[in-house]
Design a protein that fits this description.
TIM Barrel, Immunoglobulin-like, disulfide bond, eight-stranded parallel sheet, 11 helices, 25 strands, single chain, signal, seven-stranded antiparallel sheet, Aldolase_TIM
Length: 527
């Protein structure tokens, strides 16, 4: 924090995203429908069937059965979604959409009931236009938003994919907000997927509108398409978070157009990017090897991590890419991804991920399941089009939670303009009483240690609270002499096992000191 704030130069959000830089986005209210606090996991038929004859009620029931019998439900897959071509080409006399009786003789409500009986959720598709995307011309929802939302709710729909075809040139935000409002009035909680293909940079405006938004055009089952979607999506990490996700399109794993290594890369990168994991293959035909990819619970855990951070790119040199993802328990996930045609060694360090210093680190390979230790180097020989995926943990000592993984109250920012900090930045709280920085942490621990800098002459006191209860009041964070001089403040606390919220709240108009990290330690360290 400085004694004043400089007005930032306006920069195109698209240019920032394309650069891959990590910046703090403007404060934006997310869609508060309480849904998709982690990215959605499930199935959509489009990639495997499109509108061919095999897309039927029987197929979709079979997918729901396989979710249960093959352990996908237990692995976290929840949504069984249908795509375009489920309806007749014309509405009925009441103006309602009508399920195609040849494909869905029992109707959509009966199908949703079947899916629900399996302990799963059901999703449907339409377009924010006069027609859907298929050339047969099925009716879209433009100017029918409330009627269609009410119909979907009456059928028990839990998820809506809302496409972008035949939109008549109507402003995208207008069209997608209209359906958001209609869903909110439908009386049913329905997750809302904006399939706008990234045409109007939805990452800059869609967080208060939908639970997820497409950042790309349609994926296809080949390496060039898949890796292109990853490249387009990976610079948008600042826009993703619980309840609002970047969507580089559905999974192709199991459709047969890529190698096993390429499918593992596909699944790894989608998990690192906190992307939706919507299976796009006909699970009745998928091999055991591809089921093993889809059911890798260690990789799924990265995607479903409750902190909800999308990975950032630590380096991309000639197609050798290093991704790092901050996890809720203080660990890091690191992906070493080889986009080139030849085997190459890809390397980074634990310190580059911001995990904090330790005498050694544990690396768990999430595909081979091998575990090893390192003093800091993270490196592997990676075959062409493959990805080595590690979960990195500090071996002994405190668990570090960087400030860039924290929540900062309104007016605060994550900055990197004062050297010497750990990780990729520090929290610069607003100059105000009540300004706060808040971490989600995992116990047990008996001490909290805060890394900070205070370049003013006076101490900056804060209240430290755990799960909403103040455990240390008006704790001073003394002057350190400069904003580039970092020190620590530690306090004992009885933090039991489990998840907790730790917040520091400024008690004076100066706000808090610049906060670099929070360490959870079994012993108090001198401040």
């Amino acid at each position: 924090m400085s004694s004043f704030r400089r007005v930032a130069t306006a920069v195109s959000a698209f240019a920032i995203a394309a650069s891959g830089l990590v910046v703090s986005p403007p404060e934006a209210l997310a869609l508060e429908n309480g849904l998709l606090r982690t990215p959605p996991m499930g199935f959509n038929n489009w990639n495997s069937t499109q509108c061919r004859a095999e897309f039927t009620e029987t197929m979709i029931k079979g997918i729901a059965d396989i979710f249960v019998s093959k352990g996908l439900k237990d692995a976290g897959y929840t949504y069984v979604n249908i795509d375009d071509c489920w309806a007749l080409p014309s509405r009925n006399s009441a103006g309602d959409l009508v399920p195609d009786p040849a494909r869905f003789p029992g109707g959509i409500k009966a199908l949703a009931d079947y899916v629900h009986a399996k302990g799963l959720k059901f999703g449907i598709y339409t377009s924010a236009g006069t027609k859907t995307c298929n050339k047969a011309g099925f009716p879209g929802a433009l100017n029918h938003e409330q009627q269609d939302a009410n119909l979907f709710a009456s059928w028990g729909v839990d998820y809506l994919k809302y496409d972008n075809c035949n939109n008549q040139g109507v402003d995208a935000q207008q069209r997608y907000k209209a359906m958001r409002d209609a869903l909110a009035k439908s009386g049913r909680a329905i997750a809302y997927s904006i399939c706008e293909w990234g045409q109007n940079q939805p990452w800059t405006w869609a967080a208060p509108v939908g639970n997820l938004w497409r950042t790309t055009g349609d994926i296809s089952d080949k390496w060039s398409s898949m890796i292109g979607k990853a490249q387009a999506n990976r610079g948008l990490a600042q826009y993703a978070g619980p309840g609002h996700w970047n969507d580089p399109d559905m999974l192709e794993v199991g459709n047969g157009g890529m190698t096993a290594a390429e499918y593992r890369t596909h699944f790894s990168l989608w998990a690192m990017m906190a992307a939706p994991l919507l299976i796009g293959s006909d699970l009745r035909k998928v091999s055991d090897d591809n089921f093993a990819i889809l059911k890798n619970t260690d990789v799924i855990a990265l995607d479903q991590d409750p902190l909800g951070k999308q990975a950032t790119v630590l380096g991309a040199d000639g197609g050798l890419v290093v991704y790092s993802k901050v996890l809720a328990n203080g660990d890091r996930a690191v992906a070493l991804s080889n986009e080139t045609a030849a085997t190459a060694t890809i390397s980074t360090t634990a310190s580059a991920t911001g995990i904090g210093s330790a005498s050694s680190y544990t690396l768990k390979d999430l595909w081979s399941k091998a575990t090893r230790t390192t003093t800091g180097t993270i490196s592997a020989s990676v075959p062409s089009h493959a990805t080595v995926l590690y979960r990195v943990s500090r071996a002994g000592g405190p668990t570090r939670y960087e400030a860039e993984s924290a929540v900062v109250s309104e007016g605060g920012t994550i900055d990197a303009n004062h050297a010497g900090f750990s990780g990729t930045g520090f929290a610069n709280g607003a100059n105000a009483v009540g300004s706060y920085v808040e971490w989600q942490v995992t116990g047990p621990a008996s001490a909290l240690t805060f890394g900070y800098a205070n370049g003013t002459a006076a101490a900056r006191p804060v209240d430290i609270s755990v799960d909403g209860t103040v455990v240390a009041a008006a704790v001073p964070f003394p002057a350190t002499g400069a904003w580039t001089t970092w020190s620590t403040v530690a306090r004992s606390v009885a933090l039991p096992s489990g998840s907790h919220t730790v917040r520091v709240t400024a008690t004076t108009a100066d706000g808090p000191a610049n906060l670099d990290y929070l360490d959870l330690s079994p012993e108090v360290r001198a401040s």
